[in-house]
Description:
The structure holds two protein chains of two kinds. By secondary structure, chain A is α/β, with parallel strands linked by helices. Chain A is built from twelve helices and 13 strands. Chain A has a single domain (2-359), classed as TIM Barrel, CATH 3.20.20.30. Chain A has helices at residues 23-39, 60-68, 88-101, 118-121, 129-143, 184-193, 207-222, 245-257, 268-274, 282-296, 313-336, 349-359, and strands spanning 2-7, 44-47, 75-78, 81-82, 107-111, 149-151, 159-162, 175-179, 196-199, 233-235, 239-241, 278-280, 301-304. The mean pLDDT of chain A is 97. The model of chain B is unreliable at 172-176 (pLDDT under 50). The interface between A and B is medium-sized, with 30 and 20 residues.
Amino acid sequence: xxxxxxxxxxxxxxxxxxxxxxxxxxxxxxxxxxxxxxxxxxxxxxxxxxxxxxxxxxxxxxxxxxxxxxxxxxxxxxxxxxxxxxxxxxxxxxxxxxxxxxxxxxxxxxxxxxxxxxxxxxxxxxxxxxxxxxxxxxxxxxxxxxxxxxxxxxxxxxxxxxxxxxxxxxxxxxxxxxxxxxxxxxxxxxxxxxxxxxxxxxxxxxxxxxxxxxxxxxxxxxxxxxxxxxxxxxxxxxxxxxxxxxxxxxxxxxxxxxxxxxxxxxxxxxxxxxxxxxxxxxxxxxxxxxxxxxxxxxxxxxxxxxxxxxxxxxxxxxxxxxxxxxxxxxxxxxxxxxxxxxxxxxxxxxxxxxxxxxxx
Amino acid sequence: xxxxxxxxxxxxxxxxxxxxxxxxxxxxxxxxxxxxxxxxxxxxxxxxxxxxxxxxxxxxxxxxxxxxxxxxxxxxxxxxxxxxxxxxxxxxxxxxxxxxxxxxxxxxxxxxxxxxxxxxxxxxxxxxxxxxxxxxxxxxxxxxxxxxxxxxxxxxxxxxxxxxxxxxxxxxxxxxxxxxxxxxxxxxxxxxxxxxxx
Lengths: 360, 198
């Protein structure tokens, strides 16, 4: 099973000091977080993509390429890549380039984006969000698999005799996850292609996670990619840890209370009770994370959100240290217990290359 | 059949709740109903949190399930600033679009003066038309003076009769059917792709 970090990339004032990091500081902090993830033995770093303040990561492959140059094992991913407003041709090119540079340590997660104005800023219409995701991905899928593509669709200018370069490394397209909180069409899309499905599993109760994962699994089997149990599932999670759980609550509360997305709402206690958020000791994080399996089945990838709401970099790096030293080793061991042998690991470049060689 | 009263009254005891109870009792005299009352006052904080956090807490979730699963609704609001109260509107704002489509609804309101009685027609009726509910013709407005005057009883009886009739008729045609959310019946992906190629 893979473990990692996913970052939204928000620039948020630290509520305890009132200080807002500069964009440069935040960008460099994201890089430091990724490097720390590799250092402590995590498997994945994923960055969000946003095109409006207060977010910095508008150009994920630039950032991930920079990280790739400084890492050796870390898988570089996204959370998410906007399949609606990006040109699928540019996604094909950018991520194939990144994949070549990173020796295959790349996958990506498709998402639609829920910021209304971003669509018109990129010449699109949010009401076509699902259709954009379907058509754009269908094109991207072909661009990575067919050397010469002739194509015509509703949303993009036609292509005649187009070859996306560079070609995917070893002829193996990067593995794709599709992320969605509550749109059954996207679970269906992921299942249709035999791609992975990722649920962010944060901020809200887990019932959407359960429904979406169940739908994806059953449709994955329907399309003949394997059994429902063999479908490739990734989940998010949000944590804040200190050795002593009371210290974690005390330190995190000022950030929680005014956080973007969920601040000024129910208490930290209510949200930890009703959603997958864990604020407490490493043991509590382990205990709650292991329960995700109860509603999602045996799954392949667990990403944690640790760096938002204005938490200082030092604190975030301490979280990742604890993840690497105390939490993930136990999770790896415990998630392996009772896991059926036929449940696969998350696809990597190496495993996809091997599968391709076997197929040929 | 299941009848749910949504009361946005704030005081305890509340004349808004009282009007809701009287309407429910009048419906119950005409047709057998299980009555459940949703007091929005008790849900005010969870409704606000649904706005800030995007999900319903446990009590609010149960109330939404009750309302969306009802065969008939009696909705009662006090008049605030010439309209329904903000709390009343907020409750319906956090319910999924179309979740109330086809439900039989009786509109009612209370106020300090009869001058606001048309709030039923210019505020509540358009709201429940937007929610695609089927609203009975008679709405019941009770001003303070109505509680000591003739006429309120007759309006309650007439409106209750209309709701009882509508619930029976609608329930026969559409027994507690929930709007499709795309999970029960998935549109196969080839169909979605084909629709874009067309």
